[in-house]
Amino acid sequence: xxxxxxxxxxxxxxxxxxxxxxxxxxxxxxxxxxxxxxxxxxxxxxxxxxxxxxxxxxxxxxxxxxxxxxxxxxxxxxxxxxxxxxxxxxxxxxxxxxxxxxxxxxxxxxxxxxxxxxxxxxxxxxxxxxxxxxxxxxxxxxxxxxxxxxxxxxxxxxxxxxxxxxxxxxxxxxxxxxxxxxxxxxxxxxxxxxxxxxxxxxxxxxxxxxxxxxxxxxxxxxxxxxxxxxxxxxxxxxxxxxxxxxxxxxxxxxxxxxxxxxxxxxxxxxxxxxxxxxxxxxxxxxxxxxxxxxxxxxxxxxxxxxxxxxxxxxxxxxxxxxxxxxxxxxxxxxxxxxxxxxxxxxxxxxxxxxxxxxxxxxxxxxxxxxxxxxxxxxxxxxxxxxxxxxxxxxxxxxxxxxxxxxxxxxxxxxxxxxxxxxxxxxxxxxxxxxxxxxxxxxxxxxxxxxxxxxxxxxxxxxxxxxxxxxxxxxxxxxxxxxxxxxxxxxxxxxxxxxxxxxxx
Amino acid sequence: xxxxxxxxxxxxxxxxxxxxxxxxxxxxxxxxxxxxxxxxxxxxxxxxxxxxxxxxxxxxxxxxxxxxxxxxxxxxxxxxxxxxxxxxxxxxxxxxxxxxxxxxxxxxxxxxxxxxxxxxxxxxxxxxxxxxxxxxxxxxxxxxxxxxxxxxxxxxxxxxxxxxxxxxxxxxxxxxxxxxxxxxxxxxxxxxxxxxxxxxxxxxxxxxxxxxxxxxxxxxxxxxxxxxxxxxxxxxxxxxxxxxxxxxxxxxxxxxxxxxxxxxxxxxxxxxxxxxxxxxxxxxxxxxxxxxxxxxxxxxxxxxxxxxxxxxxxxxxxxxxxxxxxxxxxxxxxxxxxxxxxxxxxxxxxxxxxxxxxxxxxxxxxxxxxxxxxxxxxxxxxxxxxxxxxxxxxxxxxxxxxxxxxxxxxxxxxxxxxxxxxxxxxxxxxxxxxxxxxxxxxxxxxxxxxxxxxxxxxxxxxxxxxxxxxxxxxxxxxxxxxxxxxxxxxxxxxxxxxxxxxxxxxxxxxxxxxxxxxxxxxxxxxxxxxxxxxxxxxxxxxxxxxxxxxxxxxxxxxxxxxxxxxxxxxxxxxxxxxxxxxxxxxxxxxxxxxxxxxxxxxxxxxxxxxxxxxxxxxxxxxxxxxxxxxxxxxxxxxxxx
Lengths: 504, 641
Known about the structure:
The complex is a heterodimer.
Chain A: H1 6-23, H2 28-55, E1 65-73, E2 78-84, H3 89-105, H4 114-133, H5 137-146, H6 148-158, H7 163-192, H8 197-202, H9 207-224, H10 233-240, H11 243-268, H12 270-275, H13 277-296, H14 301-321, H15 325-356, H16 367-370, H17 372-386, H18 392-407, H19 409-433, H20 451-469, H21 472-496
Antiparallel strand pairs in A: 1-2
Helix pairs in contact in A: 1-2, 1-4, 2-3, 2-4, 3-4, 3-11, 3-15, 4-5, 4-6, 5-7, 6-7, 7-9, 7-10, 9-11, 10-14, 11-14, 11-15, 13-14, 13-19, 14-15, 14-18, 14-19, 15-17, 15-18, 15-20, 15-21, 17-19, 18-19, 18-20
Chain B: H1 2-52, E1 57-67, E2 70-78, H2 80-103, H3 110-129, H4 133-151, H5 158-189, H6 194-204, E3 208-211, E4 214-217, H7 218-233, H8 242-245, H9 251-260, H10 265-272, H11 274-277, H12 281-304, H13 308-328, H14 332-359, H15 377-391, H16 397-411, H17 415-443, H18 451-456, H19 462-487, H20 491-495, H21 505-509, H22 514-537, H23 541-548, H24 550-557, H25 562-593, H26 595-612, H27 617-640
Antiparallel strand pairs in B: 1-2, 3-4
Helix pairs in contact in B: 1-2, 1-3, 2-3, 2-9, 2-14, 2-19, 3-4, 4-5, 5-7, 7-10, 7-12, 9-14, 10-14, 12-13, 12-17, 13-14, 13-16, 13-17, 14-15, 14-16, 14-19, 15-17, 15-19, 16-17, 16-19, 16-22, 17-22, 25-26
């Protein structure tokens, strides 16, 4: 597989699908049908090819693999440089896995401008994969920002009644971060003379410069995560986005922040990262407790799950900045499992929304009587979100807490309260929607999952259990990359000498 | 073959759970009951092989979590402690399975119920066979989940749903401690596997570490954190509030989960971790105090309740208190002994109560019963046996296990040991009293049920009575037969290395003074006679007595107001806080100052800027003139300074 550009193929295959869809002609129904099928097949093919990456991945090395490098702007020392390592592999696969699911989830829900919708999703897929596979900072920046465009359109065109407000809020927040990221990118370029990511990682940025660069990175990644207090775009965006938009938003887009911290902040700016650990811990712990309490008070299902995402991402940022093997392993695992579980929860909301066109919790109740299959899958994802051992949600949370305890017992203890609150708001949600008497007239005829929906949920259910019972295939991929990252991090911090480590 | 004892319930549960609706009620009962019975038979063999013959072993399955130095595997550890637990769990569970076939005969959701029961059993077995902390936690949470699902089994009842959530969340409060304890163990020992930790404990004893900015003793802190988990699962005072409410679940569930097995997980945990607790004397003192207090406090509430299941539930809570103070004084074998006998007689009592409820058309209030002896003689006789065992009357199982616990508490010769001893004696008096109050109110005297219900009251079918007979055997004989092995001369060989006792308090307990040995029996008989006087001879006395002590009765009847306190302290503030943070934190502050504020400010500025462009020439000329003046002034000052 040395010479075959499999990574580029994975990245750009969706765009080939787009080209096909653009050629479709005919009346509206034919176009819609063909666009759906073409998108489904393209995304499935992309997924299968991305699995080849996993199969051929060499776990024993921390080097970038499937590397491709072409000159692009040689006079500026900027190249087309792609490659993945243990950190990025699963994010690529997560993107290719969720896209076909999104297509299936939109099969009946989207009836207007189907062609455009499908094109948006395929473009989005390319941008997501590109973000995780780019090894040049300029390329990364382009992909990272370009993701916003299809997402902005998906929310703004196919969204709910307040979609324009939500789309703008989403765009403004993320763009504010991007401006600073661009400034940081330029600064680094003028300092080092290249935007090649491996070169930048190897370069020792002067400590006084690190602080400012770190803050600029932080502004961008913290918004994406999202961390408290720049999280308020997320509930609005989720509420207004169509189901599939929420799935991608929660499943992949939020992970770009965590990926940014792991790919840029930690390896390139270790000294500043170490300095700012207290800031990260504080914001994360606030996020966990604050948003969990807020989730308890929600009346809208999507908002509740959106707030729970903020709390779960709080765990991720803690894990990353513990700078321990367990913490980072846990953070990455948590991002993957949250990518599956929260995506599935939004799909669950989508199931009842498609039938009833309401996200109000009070609109439902007693669904288990008419929808036992739905109750079953919803239960599994609810428990995954609660972090019950045996589901994917537990492994990440547990490893993060193990890492956190080694670094700071306060953080571990306060974060652990999240397990109590998490159980409270999820069970309370489940009770109000699923249990109770089915006495609302409009629900008496509601139908259980149909085959298409079962096809969507089956792989997700399997994954939740797989990740909980036998997470080794995932964790072992992280191993070499993370330990290499930590080695470099610790030696850089050691060289810098004792920092202001007071207050641990 | 011994793996089968663990995995057969899983197979049955998954089959009935996934395909139950397709294969029908009868088939799903078969695929759960038969594997369960087989598992029970295998665990009897296990008990004999591991316990009596000392063939301990650990079976490694496969790697679970591997991250850096943290390595965890799925494994089945079989030593005597595990064998006893597997035996108890599988035997009681199989009986409850059989019983449920009859009890749930009219329920439309039989496959689901059987699946839950089997899956619960599987999780309980993974808990007791764990050889590391995290697998134990897996089982721990798994049984918690099944308990949640079974309490809320009748999902259309609001009370059942509320009780289910309460059980899960209160247990999570305990798990918070358990989790921190696990994290601390890994931090200190660098591993989570029991054997490696137990080996390293003596070196760590007495050392301290920094936890929450405090310098504290390592083992004391860790053991206390773990004990919080045990308190949650075993419903000890403070975290007990979920157990009485859990009676909303079907009665077989109460018998299996909330009496015989799951609630004893905390007791099992402390016994399993005896090599750690033995080096943490302060933590053990806390265990004694909590256990003694719970034994007393729960018994007082048991005196006042009217719901037949709630009386037994508080009795369970109280009996768990006995087990805990036994653990605390270092008499681990006595605690496990009582755990086993209690599992038999308490499951018997619950299932007997279920038989009454079944025969009385779902009536649970004892004020609506009475005189049922003539209608259901077998059930009444079996409930008598259960009560005799519970009260600790000689020959019956509870006599041996409860006595050795009280004697150990006395023989510990510590202030707290004596406290627990006297609390236990007081609780024993109350236990006997409320048990016979229950028997008299239910089976004897004149009936208070309406004619229709009383006429239709009937004995339960054989499928429900047969399991009761098996459990009654246990309630009668298990104490007498097992005492030599559990707490007698063969104690050392029997337990092997599964329990560590630095100081053999049980040996000393055998030399307790005569009055200590006799006292439990005296108070038990006193309690029974007291109940006889109050509820048979002078049935109007209780009401008169209650009227005399109205405030105290109100306090006790309302369960010491724990629920009201927690509601005011935690539940309501959480919702208020959540709403406040949402509306004012997110809405007014963050959005108001952030995106919405900036957007509004921009609009505002634009509106003002647009006003400048009025279109009148003299406005522009005036602005230019002003500008000119300002510039000129600025330059001139610059030159002359």
